[in-house]
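User: Could you check the structure of this?
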Amino acid sequence: MNFLQTERAVLDRLLPGLDSALAAHPLTDLERAPSPAIQAFREAGGPGLLVPAEHSGAGATALQAVRAQRAVGARCPSLAVATTMHHFSVAGLVETARRGTGMEGLLLTAVAGERLLVASGFAEGNTGQNILRPHIRAEQRDGRVVLNGCKKPCSLSRSMDLLTASVTLTGEDGVARLAVAVVPAKTPGLTVRPFWGSPVLAGAESDEVVLTEVELDPQMLVATEVTADAVPDSLNVAGFLWFELLLTAGYLGVISALVERVLTRPGGFGGDPTPFLVDVEAAMLAVEAVAMAMESEAWDDTLLVRALHARYAAQDAIARTAPRCLSALGGTAFIGSPDGTYLASAASGLTFHPPSRTRMAQPLREHLDGARLRIG
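Assistant: Sure, the predicted structure tokens are below.
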């Protein structure tokens, strides 16, 4: 079948063996914690997907990355969610390496060469909380940086080798700004607590990470110019672009797994496939269009708005497609296997990631009228 053929070919080329390793497990096994999917991702070289070739990584383009992520989501929803956070963090390191001190390049080489997993401790998970106002505080003391706070949920919390976290840092001018810290998982004061209570996406290991008097070398902290007005700087715009596209592609992979079950159901499918395909494929085309634009256009507010539009269009596509698929699979499939209802539930998770459409309504309206884009 041609459906998902392109995406799986890209995944096989960039991360050989991962697709077949995931396909060898029942969905229920992959979605539990601990999940064999995370180790399979590590063994296939997944941590280096977005690491440039000069740092021993796969050097995937944005288009290749979103296609690979869709293929991952079609096999293991939890892995797609968890690795989106890893790739998002790595992409941030790639951007800072272009303007940094050299430490970022060494980290990238280590991530690819040693297949390190990077968890993302950026603010989300609280209704009404601005995602550019983190819960982790950074203080400068005697030539060191000290971190206190928590991140929940934090995917890959049990398997991570490094944590990248957004923190609030108050400068000498008294202004609190956003900064990004890179914390080795074995640093004293870093602990993990149970948090995720749902069986849906449990394999992503999204528990709570707590930082208590965690001391860090200042070189492991990257300051930004983002303040309380929540207008992202160039580094944050780049991060949000990667986050929205990879996240959306992964969840489109999840709903694609449900579509695939309809198209390959026992007894065959001889009807009109468009009610199951058109919305999902159109949403993926929108994601791919923004990914291709990242290769040739400026990474600015306008491109980020297009990424948000693609993400919200995908949410609508998922909401329309999931019930159609469940209806087409019928009661026997519902009784015989939990896969269909699980995939429908997991695919709806895209709605809960930041920034929500509700919180972005006013910023998008203001941007339409010529203002800088704020992130709600």
